TrEMBL record:
Pfam families: CarboxypepD_reg (PF13620), OMP_b-brl_4 (PF25183). This is TonB-dependent transporter Oar-like beta-barrel domain-containing protein. Residues 1-31 form the signal peptide. InterPro entries: Beta-barrel_TonB_sf, Carb-bd-like_fold, Oar-like_b-barrel, TonB-dep_rcpt-like. Its main location: membrane. One of its GO terms (molecular function) is siderophore uptake transmembrane transporter activity. It comes from Knufia peltigerae. Keywords: Carbohydrate metabolism, Cell outer membrane, Membrane, Polysaccharide degradation, Signal, Transmembrane, Transport. It is found in: Cell outer membrane. It is a multi-pass membrane protein. The lineage of its organism: Eukaryota, Fungi, Dikarya, Ascomycota, Pezizomycotina. Residues 250-319, 346-890 form the TonB-dependent transporter Oar-like beta-barrel domain.
Length: 1017
């Protein structure tokens, strides 16, 4: 029995209904492809009667028929506004990205399932999907509308920034201008973004999206985005290669009218406050500027049949950054020589980007749509910050070029989508300076921390990494299957052939390291040097590698509407990948022989492999003969969900789900087994001239000679042209799997008047994250022991750094075992913006408790012998409390105002603490510390670690016809809150303590004004 809702005035209800629909997010996601569906009941219509939906902008038509039970469905609709005609009635509605909307004609549905209560509008009943928050879905997520994109203040024209207002998501712009989007308590690697159904996944470097690793740029032009949906958990089976947040975006298309727009956005140092580093000592502001500009143009090629759309956006930045010592040794800055001191302080970092997107669509019939899209990204960025001075920085050329051809075909009860794509994405850093690198460090009581780097960048800053290849994908959706309710079944298959490239270093720029304030070593000579030296006498390795990877994916998904109340979402996915560089690798015989030779530090007859085994490390698990590695075949991913509409009126819906999602191992890790050994970077230590000893009791060291500064060849000759001593050996486990997450959620969505609310508790368990650990062991088998057992000169307790593979250097092993456990409470409330009310708002609160066994930003773990030996500590992936409030208001004089408030408590930091042992020495032990909050907001004390209030105002001036000009002002961080991102550490009383470094870098920007002008026609 459907509930009855009192009918207001027809005109008022019609206007409100259309406004709501134009901004709404509908239940029951159909596809990552961003297409929408319409379904409902047509009472009184005969079976076989036609239902049509005509896109009012493009003139394209989709047709369906009424079934015997009065139901109908229209699949494969591009997001947009449609005139829908059935049973002699017409209604204009708007469908949104990746949604299914319900539209009922001529009274309440008779005897059908899957219907809900409706607002009566004469003979037309429309169920208006909720705005931004889907109600009848098991997925955890939210839709970001075009209205939000246009009215929310924005620090950078990166369309992913608006996902920050989704509970569980964090968008960050760091001190270097680099942006990232993270979900839960993990890093950005687990995310994936789908543009019109095409995944933008990075297979080589981190960052989740290709090209986003350490980039200040945008993955896609914002002018081309219509709207997008963010799913933070329990996505359906069609979503692959994702273990964190999934973003599916719909791009704009050309229409039957020529439409265009252009904009120019600007800010500079005169329009911002000083950074904390610039305030110190009354320094002048560094020259900085941000210019963003672009245009979009679309229109008809053939009226109602074919259209085009093209957009271009550019960035030209000079970003202020701060060079400051590590937080544990800030006092050592006073010990620097003049050249080193000159490297500290504020600096300006240039960046430029060009983005192009083009689309042509063609509808030869009412049942077919063909789209051809092209996107191009080209950017150059100088990178330096932290402890790296501008001269020691690097320049990164980042390119990403993609093509996609899509054919959509719809029938009476099915919809098929086929896609062929090609991608070419490369990242190429090179040092800004070709010269010796100079690094100044200082001891913090246990280890040396970096104060500043000057001179040339490391040889590791000369790389080429990328991916290039094609894919084909086909997805089939079957609708209207009747069995104990209504079933919509979607199935798909995908094949991708992708070449993965990596070159990891070059024979340039040796680095010399000096220690400041060390009583046991003078600061007049370096205590160590690191450089590239080609390996000799080792077969099967190369400084450059190309792997012809093959990827396969299949899925099936059943969205089962059991009755008016209950919907079940049952899916299964399987992914498989073959990466020959890993699978076919043969451990060089010279390395195998060395590992199974006599351990020179052990008793007679004890091989190096025996020493490893004494420590619980079976090295045979890491030695490959080219046939004992198999691609991971067990990536089965069941995904189950439900939604229960208590009153069958979409007012109160309980939802939940459980599912597994596999990601993939980054090629940046897999390739090191080949490239690292070909061009390793050995480290040599130098003796104290006064004592004849090495720093920290290092075993093997050399006499210092100033001639070593005169070319890398002198350093290479120091260790011998035919010697491999000191050359690192990287080996990977023979049974690598793929990282994955198990996700669980339970929540309730509500519509309360104009407000849409949701409360969800989500639990995510992530496993098999990849890490490199030190494989070296003392002859006792211990990872920590007396360094004198391996030739050291001083007693103590330290890692087995000097217990190298005989004839080589350290053994570094790649394995899986990083784990993260996160529980989140996700609360949201939205009041949709409508022209009638003139305002809208969204509130997103996230409570997080998370623990893990490794820093989310670290893949190297040298504090324990195996990643499984690491203790579980509080995660640095998310703050305990985070609140984001956005709003827009149609104000006086035709000015549209927008605002955003972001508040977060301090995020934990991960480091280590020297725990005293019975031997009298200290054991480095990973710990977490939460910095003391440094800010308050309105009421209460200092409880926040991040605060920002952002405002914008836009005034539009109407000209002739549809032409309009607009002027916009954004004020970011209105109150100039300092949101510090670096820390000072104190290690005392048995625990790690941290505080914000108030002269260091910040997250986001100081108070900044951005001015924008533009026009539309």
């Amino acid at each position: 029995m459907h509930s009855t809702i009192r009918t207001p005035a027809r005109r008022l209800l019609s206007t409100a209904l259309v406004s709501c629909l134009m901004l709404a997010a509908a239940p029951n996601v159909m596809a990552q492809s961003a297409n929408a569906s319409l379904r409902g009941q047509v009472s009184g219509a005969q079976a076989g009667a036609e239902v049509t939906a005509t896109n009012v902008a493009t003139g394209t038509v989709r047709r369906g028929t009424v079934r015997a039970d009065g139901s109908y469905s229209l699949m494969g609709l591009d997001p947009g506004t449609y005139n829908v005609v059935a049973n002699g009635q017409t209604q204009k509605v708007t469908v949104t990205v990746a949604s299914t909307s319900t539209l009922n004609f001529a009274g309440a549905a008779a005897g059908g399932t899957g219907t809900t209560a409706a607002t009566n509008l004469d003979t037309v009943n429309v169920v208006a999907p909720t705005l931004l928050q889907e109600v009848r879905t098991s997925e955890v997520g939210k839709t970001v509308s075009l209205q939000q994109i246009q009215t929310t203040p924005q620090v950078s024209r990166n369309f992913l920034e608006f996902a920050d207002a989704v509970p569980g998501l964090i968008f960050t712009r760091d001190a270097k201008g680099n942006t990232s989007l993270r979900g839960g308590a993990t890093n950005a690697d687990g995310t994936n973004v789908y543009i019109d159904g095409v995944g933008q996944k990075s297979y080589v470097k981190g960052g989740g999206v290709a090209g986003q690793s350490g980039s200040a740029g945008n993955p896609f032009p914002q002018l081309a985005i219509g709207e997008y949906k963010v799913i933070s958990g329990n996505y359906k089976a069609e979503y692959g290669q994702v273990s964190s947040a999934a973003v599916t975006a719909a791009t704009k298309s050309g229409t039957n009218e020529f439409k265009g727009e252009a904009f120019y956005r600007y800010t500079d140092e005169d329009m911002r406050a000083k950074t904390p580093a610039e305030r110190q000592g009354g320094k002048d502001k560094m020259v900085s500027a941000e210019k963003e500009y672009g245009f979009a143009l679309g229109g008809p090629i053939i009226q109602d049949k074919a259209h085009f759309f093209v957009t271009y956006e550019a960035k030209r930045f000079d970003l202020p950054v701060t060079i400051a010592p590590d937080g544990a040794v800030t006092g050592a800055a006073g010990l620097l020589p003049p050249a080193g001191a000159a490297g500290l302080g504020p600096a300006s970092q240039p960046f430029q980007q060009d983005l192009i997107f083009g689309k042509i669509d063609f509808e030869p019939t009412d049942n077919d749509r063909i789209e051809l899209t092209f996107q191009d990204r080209d950017e150059t960025q100088s990178q330096f910050s932290g402890q790296t001075s501008p001269e020691a920085g690097r320049e990164v050329v980042n390119t990403d070029r993609r093509y996609a051809l899509r054919w959509n075909h719809s029938g009476e009860r099915y919809y098929n989508e086929m896609m062929v794509t090609h991608e070419d994405s490369f990242n190429n850093p090179t040092p800004l300076t070709l010269a010796n690198g100079i690094t100044y460090t200082a001891p913090d009581g246990t280890e040396d921390r970096t104060v500043v780097k000057i001179g040339g960048a490391s040889a590791l800053d000369s790389q080429v990494k990328g991916q290039k290849g094609w894919s084909i994908e086909d997805n089939l959706t079957l609708d209207g299957i009747q069995w104990a309710g209504d079933h919509t079944i979607k199935m798909g298959v995908k094949y991708k052939a992708i070449d993965l490239y990596a070159s990891d270093a070059a024979q340039i720029n040796p680095t010399f390291t000096y220690s400041l304030g060390d009583p046991d070593f003078p600061d007049s000579i370096p205590y160590k040097a690191q450089f590239v030296k080609p390996v000799t006498g080792v077969d099967g390795v190369s400084g450059e590698v190309r792997s012809k990877s093959k990827q396969y994916g299949v899925f099936i998904q059943d969205d089962w509407q059991v009755n008016d109340h209950l919907q079940l979402n049952i899916g299964l996915r399987w992914d498989y990948e073959k990466t020959p560089t890993y699978l076919d690798f043969v451990t060089p015989q010279a390395v195998v022989d060395a590992i199974y030779s006599q351990d020179p530090r052990g008793p007679a007859g004890q091989t190096y492999a025996d020493s490893l085994a004494l420590g619980g490390l079976d090295i045979s698990d890491y030695i490959s003969n080219g046939h004992n590695r198999k691609a991971f075949k067990d990536a089965w991913q069941p995904r189950l969900g439900f939604s229960y509409d208590i009153n069958a009126d979409e007012q109160h819906v309980i939802h939940g789900g459980a599912g597994r999602s596999y990601d993939r191992d980054l090629f940046d890790n897999l390739q090191l087994e080949t490239t690292k050994l070909a061009l390793p970077q050995p480290t040599v230590y130098f003796r104290n001239p006064a004592t004849g000893t090495c720093i920290n009791g290092q075993a093997a060291c050399y006499d210092w000679n100033p001639n070593l500064l005169n070319g890398i060849g002198n350093l290479q000759s120091l260790v011998g042209s035919t010697s491999n001593a000191g050359l690192e050996v990287d080996l990977l486990n023979n049974k690598l799997k793929a990282p994955y997450s198990d996700q669980f959620s339970l929540g309730m969505s509500n519509q309360i008047g104009d407000w849409l609310t949701d409360a969800t508790i989500a639990r995510t368990l992530s496993y098999d994250g990849f890490a490199f650990t030190l494989g070296n062991r003392y002859p006792t088998g211990q990872f920590f022991d007396d360094p004198r057992l391996c030739g050291g000169t001083d007693p103590g307790l330290s890692q087995a750094w000097s217990c190298n593979v005989p004839g080589f250097g350290s053994l570094i092993i790649g394995q899986q075992g990083i784990k993260t456990r996160a529980t989140q409470i996700l609360l949201s409330a939205q009041k949709p913006f409508t022209q009638e009310s003139g305002w809208g708002t969204s509130i997103a609160y996230t409570w997080t408790t998370a623990r893990h066994n490794r820093d989310i930003n670290e893949k190297y773990a040298f504090d324990r012998g195996l990643i499984g030996d690491y203790p579980t500590i509080r995660s640095n992936g998310a703050p305990r409390h985070r609140l984001v409030v956005t709003g827009s208001y149609a104000g006086f004089w035709g000015i549209t105002f927008g605002g955003k408030i972001t508040l977060a408590t301090p995020t934990a930091v991960n480091d280590w603490y020297p725990v005293p042992q019975a031997s009298g020495y200290n054991l480095p032990t990973p710990q977490a510390a939460v910095p003391n909050a440094n800010g308050k907001f309105l009421l209460g004390g200092k409880i926040f670690g991040y605060r920002s209030v952002d405002l914008q105002a836009t005034k539009t001036f109407k000209l002739a016809g549809d032409t309009e000009l607009y002027a916009r002002i954004d004020i970011i961080n209105v109150f100039n809150f300092d949101n510090f991102s670096t820390y000072n550490y104190v290690k005392s009383n048995g625990k790690l303590q941290a505080s914000y470094n108030e002269t260091g870098e910040i997250i986001g920007t100081p108070r900044q004004v951005k001015a924008e002008v533009g026009f539309r026609f």
